[in-house]
Specification:
about 325 residues; alpha+beta; eight-stranded mixed beta sheet; 9 helices; about 25% helix; binds N-oxalylglycine; binds nickel (II) ion
Length: about 325
């Protein structure tokens, strides 16, 4: 039996009420867990001329929020525009054509078109379809899993996705250097702990169709990313919320800003000095929301644990040491780490 796609369901005319598998338990529903008013997330400009201030801003945001918006990062707005266009064109294809790329996470095949990624104990389904593929390094890319349509998706690999990839790697370097300095470590430490030039980038395009009862559903349920960093952009529809001081804080759309999430691997390497941000996304009654998340991850064989300079007898290691492959296996299967 094929997987029921959210997009198909959302656009079937009769759908006025949310099917039961999407209705969240009462204590998870957006209508009962509204975001706090008047709190805004940190916005950090990479053009801050005073390096030590930039380091401090990044380190504070990473330790207090695990999240910040990055502006003046040097990525041209047209690149975001092209990225959005090809993503939208893919999801606008006939369903049958998209199904040719269907993935199969239960058999370890994550790349391609999908609807559900991790196991969910309550078997509740998230209101999102996605497309997922590895973007870097080129030796790990499976181009045959990438959309043939729009043709620009693969062809643009030579031009625009390649350019986007380059920019994501540049920002990864820059942010990891700032984060290393914020821990009083040598600049290259975090990057080398994550596999250096073997660091991988994964692209996940999230497509959240309009939802008949958004107050009862979630786009993605509360989670932390298992990556080291996640660099995300969205279309102009807001929906992301992050958990801070026991409350949800809504992240408003900010044009051309990159939403930087600290993920689990940086929390572990920093021995908890940086927080892996708990976040979720809400859906919308009228508007389709889309987001493009780039997960910065170590290769599977890299061993990740708290860095020795960051623990001692008084401040012992807070996390176990394991390969990223083991970590990933536990996370996907909701096993203790
Ligand atoms: C994710 C995620 C949030 C968003 O894909 O891991 O958290 O804003 N997405 O789409
Ligand atoms: Ni996430």
């Amino acid at each position: 039996m094929g997987v029921e796609r959210i997009q198909t369901l959302a656009f079937s005319n009769q759908l006025k009420e949310l099917p039961p598998q999407f209705i969240r338990p009462v204590n998870e529903r957006p209508e009962n867990t509204k975001a706090v008013e008047g709190v805004t997330v940190p916005v950090i400009s990479l053009s801050q001329p005073h390096h030590h201030l930039l380091v401090r801003e990044v380190a504070e945001a990473a330790s207090q929020w695990g999240f910040f918006l990055l502006t003046n990062h040097g990525i041209s707005p047209w690149l975001f525009k092209l990225l959005q266009e090809v993503g939208e064109q893919f999801f606008a294809l006939p369903q049958k054509e998209k199904e040719a790329y269907a993935n199969d996470p239960s058999n370890g095949n994550f790349e391609g078109y999908g609807t559900k990624m991790t196991k969910n104990l309550e078997e509740k389904v998230e209101w999102v379809d996605y497309f997922f593929h590895i973007m870097a390094p080129s030796s790990k890319v499976n181009y045959d899993k990438w959309p043939k349509n729009p043709p620009s998706y693969r062809n643009f690999n030579l031009y625009f996705l390649k350019e986007y990839n380059k920019e994501m790697l540049r920002l990864t370097n820059e942010v990891l250097e700032l984060l290393s300095e914020g821990l009083e470590l040598e600049k290259k430490t975090l990057k080398s702990s994550l596999g250096d030039e073997k660091i991988e980038l994964e692209m996940k395009i999230n497509m959240y169709p309009p939802c008949p009862q958004p107050e009862l559903a979630l786009g993605v349920e509360p989670h932390t990313d298992m990556s080291a960093l996640t660099l995300l952009v969205s279309n102009e529809v807001s929906g992301l919320q992050i958990w801070k001081d026991n409350k949800w804080v809504a992240v408003d759309y900010l044009q051309n800003a990159i939403f930087v999430h600290i993920g689990d691997q940086l929390e572990i390497l920093s021995n908890g000095k940086y927080k892996s941000v708990l976040h979720r996304s809400l859906v919308n009654k009228e508007c389709k929301r889309m987001s493009w998340a780039v997960f910065v991850v170590p290769p599977h064989e890299v061993v990740i644990g708290p860095l020795p300079p960051l623990f001692n007898d008084h401040d012992p290691p807070k996390f176990s040491i394991k390969t990223y492959a083991e970590y990933r296996h536990c996370k996907f299967n909701k096993l203790p780490q």
